[in-house]
Write a structure and sequence with these properties.
The chain is an all-alpha fold. The chain contains 9 helices and no strands.
C-alpha cells in the first residue's frame, strides 16, 4: 500500500509524471486567473465602505493563502526528508522556499497598498502584519541556509529544522486577529461559515484563489524539475534525456 509513496520519492518518476501535469495545470491557472481578474475588475461591485480600493483583495488574499500553504508544504517536505531521507522531498522543500518568499512579499506589498487608503498608513506593527513579516524572514532564512551550506545534506537538514520550528508562526498568523486587538480585518470567508460578501464579490475571489494555487503548482513543479536535473545530471537517465533534447 506504500508503493506509491516510495515511487513518489523517485526523482526520475516524478520528473516523468510531472511533465504530463504541467500543461493541464498551466492552462487551468491561466483560465482561472484571467476569468477571476476580469470578473473582479469589471463586474464585481464596489465595496460600500472602501470603494474600488477593496479590489486589491483579489491579489492580496490568494497571495496570503499561498504564503502560508507553501510554508506548510515546505515544512512537511523537510520532515519527510529528515525521516525517510527522500532526496525529492529535500528538492521540493528547497523549491518551496523561494516561491513562498515571493508570495509572502506580494502579500505584504499588496497589504500595504490596501492599508494606505483603508487605515491611512502603509504599515503598522499589527499582529497579523508582524507575523507575516516574520514568515517572510523565515523563508529568507531557509534560502540563506541552502546558499550558505555547501554540503547539500547538511543544508537540507538545517533548513528542515528551521522550517519545522517556524511552523509555530502559522497558527499565530491565522488567529492573530482573534487573539489580539488588530487593525487587520477577520477572514473574508471561511469553509465553515457563510461568506459576509455577496456572491458577485466572493465568487471571483474564490476563482482567483484556485488560480493562484494552480500557478503555485506549476511553479513548484518547474523548480523541482530543474533541481532534479541539477542534482541528477550525472545519472544515466538524465544524460539520455538531455541527448534526446
Amino acid at each position: 500500500m506504500w508503493t506509491w509513496f516510495h515511487r513518489l520519492g523517485s526523482p526520475r518518476w516524478f520528473y516523468e509524471i510531472s511533465g504530463r501535469w504541467l500543461p493541464w495545470l498551466a492552462v487551468a491557472a491561466t483560465l482561472l486567473i484571467v476569468v477571476g481578474t476580469t470578473w473582479a475588475l469589471l463586474f464585481a461591485p464596489q465595496d460600500y465602505q472602501q470603494g474600488n480600493s477593496f479590489r486589491i483583495i483579489y491579489i492580496h488574499v490568494p497571495a496570503a493563502f499561498l504564503a502560508q500553504s507553501c510554508y506548510m508544504i515546505m515544512a512537511v517536505a523537510g520532515a519527510v526528508g529528515l525521516i525517510w531521507k527522500m532526496k525529492l522531498a529535500d528538492m521540493a522543500a528547497k523549491s518551496c522556499a523561494s516561491i513562498g518568499a515571493s508570495f509572502t512579499l506580494l502579500a505584504l506589498i499588496t497589504g500595504a497598498v490596501w492599508g494606505k487608503p483603508t487605515w491611512g498608513t502603509w504599515w503598522v506593527w499589527d499582529a497579523r502584519l508582524t507575523s507575516m513579516l516574520i514568515l517572510f524572514f523565515l523563508y529568507l532564512g531557509v534560502v540563506a541556509l541552502h546558499s550558505a551550506i555547501t554540503d547539500r545534506d547538511q543544508a537540507a537538514k538545517a533548513s528542515a529544522v528551521l522550517a519545522l520550528v517556524g511552523l509555530v508562526n502559522i497558527p499565530i498568523i491565522k488567529y492573530s486577529v482573534e487573539w489580539w486587538n488588530t487593525l487587520h480585518q477577520p477572514a473574508t470567508f471561511t469553509v465553515t461559515e457563510k461568506p459576509a460578501m455577496p456572491a458577485e464579490m466572493w465568487v471571483p475571489l474564490l476563482i482567483m484563489v484556485l488560480g493562484f494555487y494552480c500557478f503555485f503548482a506549476v511553479a513548484l513543479i518547474m523548480r523541482t524539475r530543474f533541481e532534479i536535473l541539477v542534482r541528477e545530471w550525472r545519472t544515466r537517465w538524465v544524460t539520455e534525456l538531455l541527448n534526446k533534447q
